[in-house]
Amino acid sequence: WQSQYELSIDLFDAAVESACVLNKGEIVINYSGQVVNHARCYDDKLTCLYSATKVLRNSELLQESMDASFDILVQVQERVPRPMGDSKLFGEIQTMDAILQGTSDDEIFNMELTRSKKVVTIVRLYADLANTLHFINPSLIGDVSYRMVDLTMKSGLCVLSPLAFTAYGALSAAIGNLTQGCRLGRLAIRLLQKKRLAVHKSHVICGVYQAILWICDPLQSVAQAHLLGQKAGQQSGDFLYSILNWHLSVMTSYTHGEKLMTVRDNIGHFIEKVQRLPTNRASAGLMGLSILLHSQAAVLIEGLQIAEEEHVGNFPGERSVLAFAENPMVKLQTKIHHLVRAVYFQQVDGILANVDISETMAKNMQQLNPLFLMGVFFEGLASFQLARERPKESMKWIEKGDSVLSKLEMLSNHSVWNFENKKFLLEAEKMDIAGNVETAAVMYERAIQSALEHRFIHEEGLASEKAGLFSLRVGRHQKALDFLSHSIKCYQKWGALAVSKRVESFIASRYCADFSQLEPNADTLKSLFASMNQSSQKRQDRD
Predict the structure, then answer these.
(1) What is the Cα–Cα distance from 342 to 469, expressed in whole angstroms?
(2) pLDDT < 50: residue spans in the chain
(3) What is the phi/psi pair of residue 67, to 5°?
(4) E strand segments, 309-355
(5) Closest Cα to residue 395, out of 357, 433, 368?
(6) Are 494 and 297 in contact (CB under 8 A)?
(7) CA separation (Å) from 25 to 38, 269, 277, 292, 355?
(8) Would you say 296 and 250 are in contact if contact means Cβ atoms under 8 Å apart?
(9) What is residue 542's three-state secondary structure?
(10) What is the SS3 assignment for 140-200?
(11) CA distances from 316 to 196, 276, 280 (A)
(12) Are 354 and 374 in contact (CB under 8 A)?
């Protein structure tokens, strides 16, 4: 320590970081204590003190980890993070937005690497703090994201810079600046091309596609991107984000209409993997979310009775999760799955019990992602259905449906592929309630066309069923049969056999005949799909 001070600091820092990666808490504390005793200034203690916060977080002492992180920030003249809604923070975010708008992607990409070890450690501290705050106080994450990108813009790039732009891009998207959010998400991915900045590739892919780029990229490609993130994590030893990317790939494939048997098999393989992991907060949460998705796929394939089973195949049923679920994420995803199945199986009680997705997200400060958007979309459909079926409360439900429609209109401006069909279907439902029969008929057909064009087979089936029920209400019985018959084919192709059987039973009861003996008019759908091909060709020519 006397003759080789700088070398000693470097060696102890490296030893502490290695022990932290291996989750050897006692070694981290031992070596950190030696550094604290011999360091000549606070900055030389930073790496060890930061590693101690990671040990606390890995031991699930989240409050203690957050408090220790705040203490470090104060010592290095950083602020304790402020909640979103703080007026000064809002002004600083606006200033940063202006700086970013005036700086091109190439200029950021070609910035020099910072030589300040202190800055790198502080940005690392902020990156880990954001993960901790997710469980304790999400309202502080916005300020943490701001400081990460502020330090990057002032001091230069570092190994954490892709994560900094990921975090700030997610913040931009969350507060409604979707264009900037998508730009920064793509910039974060581009920065991974720099070899020295690709260390956290799996983490960056996970965050960028889950929080940002699902808004503007086709959901089918988002699921594939998460698989690339899984592979990157395996190659780099980032086990946590490899697992998270795997989970998100399966979850996203469900939202874009992957065959349900494939979803059930893939999430089953994932559950088998998680069952072999040590039990902690992360693995328990992932297990619960995965069991819920496995059960949801099984319910849509086999029927509602599956939801009451103690086991579904070789895995626990969803009741095992609901009995002990305290995780807000598990509670919200449970509500989404129950609302989706209530709409598909026409359960009014289930709809009424779960038609508060947006309120739950706002209460928990949870940001939109593909599954949450699915829940919000079904919330809009359920609201318009309740407005139709409960005339005395219609204004309340129409207002709620309009709120969801506004979100879909905004999102559709950034991705016609992902959101156009959903927007059209909500518009059709709204026009139907308003009594605009011809406009509603056109919008139902456009919803079917868009879902087909963009390969959302489950939503093509849903739009066809809604169009069939609308046609029945306005007395167009042949068209109703045509649309309902097409919905059955879509549901069967998706693998939702229990849903298709429900529609078959409805047709049989409505038309007083065996569904297999009925003959839909193929000309109705031929003309519809011909129109779709023409509009698709016009769009390609325009692009």
Answers:
(1) 17
(2) 536, 539, 542-543
(3) -60, -40
(4) 311-312, 315-316
(5) 433
(6) no
(7) 20, 32, 19, 34, 45
(8) no
(9) helix
(10) HHHHHHHHHHHHHHHHCECCCHHHHHHHHHHHHHHCCCHHHHHHHHHHHHHHCCCHHHCCC
(11) 43, 15, 18
(12) no
Tell me, what's the pLDDT at 519? 66
Report d(CA 222, CA 105) in Å as an integer.
Answer: 22
Task: In whole angstroms, give the CA distance from residue 469 to residue 483.
Answer: 9
Please give the Cα distance from 241 to 166 (Å, whole number): 15
Cα–Cα distance for residue pair 375/204, rounded to 1 Å: 25
Ordered DSSP codes for 1-66: --SSHHHHHHHHHHHHHHHHHTT-HHHHHHHHHHHHHH-SSGGGGHHHHHHHHHHHHHTT-HHHHH
What's the Cα-to-Cα distance from 508 to each of 294, 485, 501, 502, 515, rounded to whole Å?
31, 11, 10, 10, 5
Q: Are the beta carbons of 238 and 207 closer than 8 angstroms?
A: no
DSSP-derived 3-state class of residue 278? coil
For helices 457-473 and 477-494, the axis angle rounded to 10 degrees is 160
Tell me the two tokens of residue 257: 């209409």
- Across the chain, which distance is largest between two alpha carbons, in Å? 95
CA gap 394, 385 in Å, rounded: 9
What are the structure tokens assigned to 275, written together? Answer: 């069952």
| The dihedral sign for the CA sequence 97, 201, 64, 40 | negative
Query: In this structure, are residues 56 and 64 in contact, taking their beta carbons and an 8 Å threshold?
Result: yes
8 A C-beta contact, residue 367 and residue 169 = no
Question: Phi-psi category of 455—alpha, beta or left, where left has phi over 0 and alpha has psi -120 to 50?
Answer: left
Q: Alpha carbon 401 to chain centroid distance?
A: 21
Separation CA 180–CA 97 (nearest Å): 8
Chain center to CA of 11: 40
How confident is the model at residue 174, as a pLDDT? 94
Q: List, as one string, the DSSP characters of 375-391.
A: HHHHHHHHHHHHHHH-G
Ordered DSSP codes for 225-273: HHHHHHHHHHHHT-HHHHHHHHHHHHHHHHHTT--HHHHHHHHHHHHHH
Pair of tokens at residue 340:
């989706």
| CA proximity to 158, closest of 122, 206, 208 | 122
292 vs 121: CA distance, rounded Å? 38
Gap between the Cα atoms of 442 and 427, Å rounded: 10
The dihedral through the CA atoms of 47, 51, 52, 57 has a sign that is: positive
- What is the pLDDT, as a whole number, of residue 542? 47
Predicted pLDDT at 325: 67
